[in-house]
Amino acid sequence: MNKKATILIVDDDPDIIEQLTIIIKSEGYEVVAAGGQEEAEKTLMAVKPDLAVIDLMMEEMDSGFVLAHEIKKLYPGTPVILLTSVKSATGLSFAAASPDQQSWIKADRFLDKPVRPEQLKNELSRLLNHD
Amino acid sequence: MFKIEVDHKTVEANEGETLLTVLKREGIHIPTLCYIEGLPPSGACRMCLVEVEGAPTLVPSCSYPAAAGMKIKTQSPKVLAARKMIIELLLANHPDDCLYCDKNGKCDLQTLAQDMGVRQRRFAGKKNNREMDVSSPSIIRDPEKCVLCGKCVRVCEEIQTVSAIDFNGRGSSAYIGTAFDNGLNISSCINCGQCILVCPTGALTEHSYINEVITALNDPTKTVVVQHAPAVSVSLAEEFKVKPGRDIDGKMVAALRRIGFKRVFDTSFTADLTIMEEGSELVQRILTGGVLPMLTSCSPGWIKFVEEFYPDFIPNVSTCKSPQQMMGAIIKNFWADREKLKPSDVVSVSIMPCTAKKFECSREEMGHDYVPDVDYVLTTRELGQLLRMYGIDLEAIEPEAADNPFGERSSAGKIFGASGGVMEAAVRTAHFLITGKEMADLKIQALRGIKGSKELHAKIGDLEIGAAVVSGLGNARALLDQLREGRSDLHFIEVMTCPGGCINGGGQPLGADIEAVKARMQALYQIDRDAPVRVSHHNTWVQRLYDEFLGKPLGERSHHLLHTHYNKRNVLV
Q1: CA distance to partner chain B, nearest, from residue A54 (Å)
Q2: DSSP assignment of B174-188, as one string?
Q3: Best residue in A16, A22, A51, A112 to probe B by mutation, most B CBs within 10 Å?
Q4: Per-residue pLDDT band at B405 (split at 50, 70, 90)
Q5: Which of A81, B346, B388, B523 is most exposed by smallest CB count within 10 Å?
Q6: B183–A129: do the CB atoms touch at under 8 Å?
Q7: Is B193 left (phi over 0), alpha (psi -120 to 50) or beta?
Q8: Are B186 and A114 inside 8 Å of each other by CB?
Q9: Which of A97, A117, A122 lies closest to B211 in CB terms?
Q10: Cα–Cα nearest to A47, from A6, A16, A94, A91
Q11: A contact set with B (CB within 8 A)
Q12: ipTM more than 0.85?
C-alpha cells in the first residue's frame, strides 16, 4: 500500500483541518493543509499531492470546484475528494457519478459531512491504490 | 366486558382498553399521526380526538380508557373541525414542496389534509428552516418536514433500543435530532430504517442510489449485474397497489432484465451458501469448544449494534458475511473471472428490503483490492420507483427464471426473509450434517410466526441443541443481557434487526400494518411448502461452486471471500 502518500487538505474551518489531519496521519499518510482556495493554490506550486481532500464552499460558493479544476490541470493523475455539506445547506444534489456532472465537476468522489473516519480511510485507500 | 355507546350504536369494550382499540375493532376509522400499534400511546398529535358526553373537552381516543356507559361521538362537527384545525396548524410551518417530496402521494399528512378538506392556507406561519442531514449512506433526515409526532424517536428507543435520535429544544423550537447535532452518519444509528417506515411525512427517507444505478446501466464500459433478496419478491407487488402477500419472483426477474441488468442473481443462493458456511462454523465451534452461543451475522443493523453496544459479544458473532456480501464477493471474483471481466468493470447492484445494507456494502472489509463487492443497494421501494420510471407493467410481463450459476435456490434460502427462517434452514442442514439423514418433517413450527423471541430445544442425533430467534433489537438486547448474566443453555441465536425479519425491513413498501407483514411471511412459507428443494445442502449449484471454486466450507478460499471480522465501534469519535 502506498502509505507515504501526501494528502492535501483544504478547508476554511480549522477544526475540520485538525480532525482530518489526525485521521489521515493516523493512517501513515503525510498531510499538507491549506485554509482556503488561494492558500491551496500557492501550496500546489510547491507540493504535488498524491490526493486532495477539499471543501466546496470557502472564499466563494464554488471555490472547491475551481480548486478541483486547477488541481486536475496541474496534476491530472491526482484524485480529488470533495468533502462538503452543500447538500444539507442548499438542498442541491451533486454526484460525481453521472457523466454530465463529471464533465464539469472535476472530483473523483463526493463525500457529505460529517464523515466517519473509517469511511474516509476507505475512500483514500481505494483512490490511491486503484483508480 | 361492558357496553359503551358509539355514534348512537351500542358496542362492547373490555376493561383497560383504550377508546381507539375499541373503535378500530368496530371498523370505525379514526385518523392518527402518532399512533404505533403495539406501543404505549403518546397522545402527541391529537388527530384521534373524539367527543365524550360529559367531558369538558375533546379527548384523544388513543390514550383514553373506555369506561362503562360512555357515550362517544366520532364524527360530530366539533370533532371534524378540531381535526381539520390540527392539520391546518401542522401545515402552517410545513414546506410547500409536495411536488418535489419523496413521499408525494405516500404521505400521511398529505392524505389527511386531503381527507379533512383543507383547501386553503389558513395560518401563514414561519416555515421551518433546518438543514437536511444527508451524511448517512442509508437514511436522509429532513427536519423541515417533521411534524414532531415522535414515532421515529419511539421506534428507535423502545423497539430498537438504539436511541440515535430524540427531541431537542423546547416548545416551538423543538426539533428531532441526533446527539450534539452531529449527522446520522457518525451517530449510534444502526441504519435499520424502521423510522422511515413509521414517519408520516417526508422527514425520513432512504438515501437513494437510483441515479447512480441508471448511470451505470447506461455506461457501455460497465457490466451491470443485480441480485435480489429473498424478502423482496413477496413485497414488491405492494408498490403497485396489490394486496400484501403476493409473490412475483419471476416477474421481478423479467423486469430487472428489461431494465438492462446483464445478469439477475438470487441472493437466496448465497443464503444457501451461508447455511453451509455458518452451519459448518457452528458444528466446528461445538466440537472444538469454540465460543458459544454463536450469533448470526446476516443483518447489518444488528452487526453495528453489537459493535457499538455489546462489543464483548463480537467473538460470538459468526464470521460469515451476510448473503448479500457473499454474493457480491463471488460475483466480483469467481463470476467476473469466469466471464473474463475485470472486477472493477462489473457494477454489482443489490435489491434489498433493507436500508442498513447500503451501509454494509460501504464497509471497508466488504471488498477486495479496493474494489467494493457490492456497489449500490436499492431498497424494495426504490426498485418500485425504478420500474415505474422505466414504464414496466408487472401485470403484463411474463415471469422468467434467475440466471445461473447463482440463480438456483432451495426454499431454505428463501425463508431467510422471515424471522426464524435462518434458524429453520440451519437446523435442517445441521440435522443432515450431524446424523446423515434428512429430518422427517422439515417444518419447524416453534421457529415460525411474528413473535419477537422464539426458542427451540431439540435433540439432533446425540446433540442437545438450544436455539433462540429474536427480531427487533430490543429483544436482542434482552437476550444478550441474559447471556451476560450467565445463561448457558443456548448454542445458536438468530438475530434480525427488524421486528419480524426482512419482510418488515426498513426498505420495504410503506403503509404496511402487522397483517401485511404476516401476509408477506405467509407468502414465504407458502413458497417453502411447494418447493422441490427445501434444504440448502441439496442446492446443486452450491455443491458445484464448492467443487469448482471454493473447495470446502470454511476452506481457504471461503475464508478469504466469505468471511469477515468486526471491530468495536466508538460512536462519538
Answers
A1: 16
A2: -EEEEGGG--GGGSS
A3: A112
A4: confident
A5: B388
A6: no
A7: left
A8: yes
A9: A97
A10: A6
A11: 85, 87-89, 91, 95, 97-99, 112-119, 121-122, 125-126, 129-130
A12: no
Residues B513 and B492: beta-carbon distance below 8 Å: no
**Is residue B365 annotated as a catalytic residue, yes or no?**
yes
Instruction: Give the SS3 label for residue A33.
Output: strand
Q: Which three cell numbers stand for residue B131?
A: 438543514
- Judged against a pLDDT cut of 60, whether residue A1 lies above it is answered with no
Is residue B438 among the annotated active site residues? no
Q: What is the DSSP letter of B133?
A: B
pLDDT in tens, B23-72: 999 999 999 999 998 899 999 999 999 999 999 999 999 999 999 999 99
- How does pLDDT run across B464-482, given as a tens digit for each residue? 889 999 999 999 999 999 9
The residue of chain B with its CA nearest to that of A19 is: B573
- Tallying the residues shown for chain A, one arrives at 131
- Residue B148 sits at φ, ψ, to 5 deg, of 60, 35
Residue of A nearest to B182 (CA): A114
Instruction: Quote the minimal CA–CA distance from B566 to chain A in Å.
Output: 13
User: For B161-174, what is each residue's pLDDT tens digit?
Assistant: 999 999 999 988 89
∠ CA B244-B247-B251, nearest 5°, is 125
Which sign, positive or negative, has the C-alpha torsion B541, B547, B552, B558? Answer: negative
Q: State how far the Cα of B528 lies from the Cα of B108, in Å rounded to an integer.
A: 35
Angstrom distance (rounded) from CA B137 to CA B550: 32
Report how far Cα B558 is from the mean position of its chain's Cα atoms: 28
Residue-wise pLDDT tens digits, B373-389 = 999 999 999 999 999 99
| Helix spans in B49-198 (H) | 77-92, 108-115, 151-154, 194-198
The answer to whether B278 is a known catalytic residue is: yes
Q: Do A119 and B131 touch (CB under 8 A)?
A: no
pLDDT band at A88 (very low <50, low <70, confident <90, very high): low
Is the peptide bond prior to B293 cis by the omega test (within 30 degrees of 0)? yes
Which architecture characterizes domain A6-129 according to CATH?
A: 3-Layer(aba) Sandwich (3.40)
Closest by CA to A48, choosing from A40, A37, A56, is A40
Active-site residue (options: B144, B238, B277, B278): B278
Can you tell me the distance from the alpha carbon of A114 to that of B457, in angstroms, rounded to the nearest whole number? 46
Please give the domain boundaries of chain B with CATH numbers for all domains.
2-75 (3.10.20.740), 89-206 (3.30.70.20), 211-562 (3.40.50.1780)
**Residue B536's pLDDT is what?**
93
Is B281 noted as a catalytic residue in this protein? yes
Quick check: helix, strand or coil at residue B89? helix
pLDDT digits (tens, 9 = 90+) for B305-316: 999 999 999 999
Runs of H (alpha helix) within B436-567: 473-484, 514-530, 540-545, 556-562
DSSP string, B416-470: GGSTTHHHHHHHHHHHHHHHSS--S----GGG-SS-SEEEEEEEETTEEEEEEEE
